C-alpha cells in the first residue's frame, strides 16, 4: 500500500509546534528558538518529510544552487589540464558539505554569456563563481551590477574590483627563477602564459622581477598553456638563444612540450638545460626527467571559492582578496 507523503501539518503535530514554526524552520528563519528548531528537524528526519523546493524558493528567494562559470573552450576544460577538474572538485566538495547544488556553465561566446546573464537575473542560482577569466571579461561585473553575489578565482584585469580567490603567482614564479639562478644558471629564458590572463601576466612579472634581482637578461616566448604551444615556444627560444641553460615555464602542460622540444633538439635535461614548470599537475611526476614545478593548491582554490560565495550570498562580509601561497617542488628537471 502506498504511504502518503508527510505534510507540513504532520511535522508540526509530530514536533508539538505550530505549522508556522515548521515553515519558518524549513525556510531558514533565525527567529525560531533552538529547542523548537531541534524538535522540528528531528520530526523531519523521523517522518522523512521533503520540503517543497519550489515553494521554499518563493518564500526565501533562494534556490540553494550556485553556478560555476568556465569562460573556456570545452576542449581546454576537458583536456589533460587538471586545473579545471581540480577547481570543480573543490567547489563540489564545499557545496555538498553545505547541502547546496552546483550548476556548471560554459561561457565561451557572447551568446553563452548573454544566456548566463539571463539565467542569473532570473535568480535560478543564489550566486556565481567565475573561473579563469580572460582579460577584462565583462561577465563578472555585469552579474555584480545585477545584485548577484559573484566571486572570481583570480583578480580581474582592468579596473573592475570583484572579490576573488587566487594564488600568489608572482611569488611562485620568482621563487622558481631564484632557484634556477642559485643553481648557477645564468641564461634563463621563459615560456610565458597568455597575456590576457592573470596567471600569464603575473608569472611573467615574477620571472622578470627575479631576473632583475640576479642581474640577468630576460628571453621570453609566449604560449597558450597547451603542450603544443610549449614545443613551439621552446623552438623559438633555442633559435633566438642557442646557449640558454634554463627555462621557467608558466604551466606544467607547456613544460611537457618544452621537454619534448629539448629532447628533439638533442639537449639533455637538466645537464644542458634545466626546466621548471608551474601547477604541479599529476603528469609532472612522471615526465622524463620528473618535473621541478611550483605547486598551487588547485582543489583548495575551489573550496575557498565556494566558501567565499556561500558567505557572500548569506549576507556576510568577506575579504575582497584571498591569496593562497604556492610551494616549489624540486624534482630532477632543474
Mean pLDDT across the residues is 87
The Rg value, from CA coordinates, equals 25 Å
Order of helices and strands: HHHHEHHEHEHEEHEHEHEHEEHEE
- Number of helical regions: 13
What is the helix fraction of residues, given as a range?
A: 40-55%
What structural category arises from helix and sheet content? alpha/beta
Question: What's the total number of strands?
Answer: 12
What does this structure look like?
The structure is a single chain. The chain is of the alpha/beta class and 334 residues long. It has helices spanning 8-15, 19-26, 34-47, 53-60, 74-77, 83-97, 110-121, 138-145, 169-182, 198-214, 227-240, 252-264, 298-313, and strands at residues 65-70, 101-106, 128-130, 150-152, 164-167, 188-192, 220-222, 246-249, 274-276, 293-295, 321-324, 327-329. The strands form four sheets. The protein has a four-stranded parallel sheet, sandwiched between helices. Helix 1 crosses helix 3, helix 9 packs parallel to helix 10 and helix 11 (227-240) crosses helix 12. It is elongated. The model has no long low-confidence stretch (mean pLDDT 87).
